[in-house]
Amino acid sequence: MFGQRLGLALVAAALVTSGSFVVDAQRVDGKQLNDMHAEMVQAVNAERAKAKLPPLCYNAKLNKAAQDHSQDQANSKSMSHQGSTGSSLEDRMKQVGFKWSTLAENVAAGQKSVADVMKSWMNSTDHRDNILGEHKFFGMGHALASSDTYGIYWTQNFGSADGESCEGGSNESGVQPTQAPYPKPTNPAPQPQPQPQPQPQPQPQPQPQPQPQPQPQPTLAPQPKPDQRPVSPGTRAPTSKNHKKCQST
User: Fold this and answer.
1) Distances (CA, A) of 132 to 46, 63, 94, 230
2) Domains of the chain
3) 163 in the Ramachandran plot: left (φ > 0), alpha (ψ -120 to 50) or beta?
4) Residue 65 contacts residue 104 (beta carbons within 8 Å)
5) How far apart, in whole angstroms, are the C-alpha atoms of residue 187 and residue 194?
6) Which of 58, 116, 147, 157 supports an S-S bond with 66, CB 3.0-4.6 Å?
């Protein structure tokens, strides 16, 4: 179910300034207005971060509706969710072409700084619920009224809508908070040049010296010994008496 929630109007009974940007009730130039816009979305997203909610981003249509309503209140010197012509919040969304699926609005008067008005809203249950609602986009309005009881009129618009984008071109699914400026690049420190590392010199490996291998000694074949055969003694001629001859057989 798509819904709308209107925060109760807030009037500052006492004005307590803080360290945030303080509005000069007589004049706000373009730079001051830009500073206030940056401070406001940062303050809203800081509260959402505490509640673990995604950040919101500015939407051009919600910004226009919020600014027109703040100026209308300043002109009529009357703080209300209803415009001087009787317009409702839905009427103002239709005028800027914001086809909302969720919608909410906070108004306040008299606070001199973003910090003061945010403190007032966060101390009110209905306004706090709007700031922490399930929305994607955000718009802010601020207008001054001279010779007026309050002097300053604030408006916050919250909403979601198909086909809408963040101011600056982001698509609706990529809602991003206002980003802090990127730090300027610094000159990179000189990198040390690699020093040639000494390469180990190959050490000559000792070459094995050939060792004399024992040569086999030739085995001398045994020389045959002369056969010592018995030799028969010569026969001697008899010198005296006849003897029989002896002959070995």
Assistant:
1) 10, 18, 24, 145
2) 30-160 (3.40.33.10)
3) left
4) no
5) 20
6) 157
pLDDT at 113 over 60: yes
Cα 224 to chain centroid distance, Å, stands at: 107
Q: How confident is the model at residue 134 (pLDDT cuts 50, 70, 90)?
A: very high
pTM, two decimals, is 0.62
SS3 (DSSP) at 109: strand
Q: What is the b/e burial string over 138-149, where b = at least 16 CB atoms within 10 angstroms of the residue's CB?
A: bbbbbbbbeebe
> What are the C-alpha distances in Å from 238 to residues 179, 231, 246?
160, 20, 12
Q: Using CB atoms within 10 Å of the CB of residue 89, give its burial: 0 to 12 exposed, 13 to 18 middle, 19+ buried.
A: buried
Across-strand partners of 153? 109, 143
How many CA atoms lie less than 13 Å away from 152 in the CB half-sphere? 20
Query: Closest Cα partner for 93 from 38, 33, 160?
Result: 160
Rounded-to-integer distance, Cα 105 and Cα 115, Å: 18
